[in-house]
Amino acid sequence: MIEFVLGESDLVDVRFAVSPLNELTLSLRVLKNPARHPLHLPFARRIRDVDTEVLLALSNERGWTPDFLSPRPHSPFTRIEDEFAALREVSTRTMRRDLRAVLGDVPTVLRDRDRMLTALENYWQVALAGQWDRMRAILEADIAHRGREMVQHGLAAMFSGISERITFVSPVVRVLIKGAEPRRVEAGGQGITLVPSLFALRTAVPVDPGARPLLIYAARGAGTVWESGRARGPAALAGVLGRVRADLLAELGEPRSSTDIARHAGVTTSAVNQHLRALRDAGLLASQRHGRSVVYLRTELGEALVSHSLGRGSSAPDPSFHRT
Predict the structure, then answer these.
(1) 271 lies in which domain range?
(2) What proportion of the chain, given as a percentage, has pLDDT over 90?
(3) pTM over 0.85
(4) Domain shared by 100 and 78, yes or no
């Protein structure tokens, strides 16, 4: 059990952020044990020819990695270039301390820091750079969802919605981490940062004494990131709405941004927006702005149409997502 004690100033400084380097680090677990990550088997097949000697040495048998690979991001718009630059500023002493904490000793293959850092940068380019825009869009959609939950239902509901292993009874956030030593951390006015991840199976809590508390959790929609084709709307629905709009409605069972949809479909954002606005005006989609993006999701009516045309009962849409 790890406990974060939040003071009054911390309670008003709960932030969400995205970290490309954290995603890279957590993806190493897929390299280590692909069978435990069935959602990411397409990713595992893509990177099977990567030189993994250095990368595999960075985690222990439980998948834990050194804390210097889990930076504290400051916004949803963090760039990997900035995180790599900051990583190169970390002292060799700190790196070796963190490696020993996880591995017990520093393996020979990790004693050459330049080789280790270069391996991480090359891995990013080969494995993740080409998918990062899509990954970021899914992570931002998750942040939008959590933010709405926090505003509409409060911090306790938002934390419990992230994971059943997390509880919040003011002023303490409790995180159940199997095998972790009990820790009680005073936030001390630094607030807390919540980071969604597509590679996290459960909650991860890198504890760095004196640093801002960080909680990494499994994002919604992780299973869609490696999809190679678009969802197809039911033929009956296409006969009423047209093929393009039926396909869009079928895709939006989870929140997605117009930019992400357009990129996935290989068309312009303006072309997609025309159809999305028409579906929204008809009451089939709800939209909500998140930063520079507009995120869409099926309404109850849209869910009912898709479900009925597929011959199954409708499932309730996200109750925290309201039409704007």
Answers:
(1) 229-309
(2) 37
(3) no
(4) yes
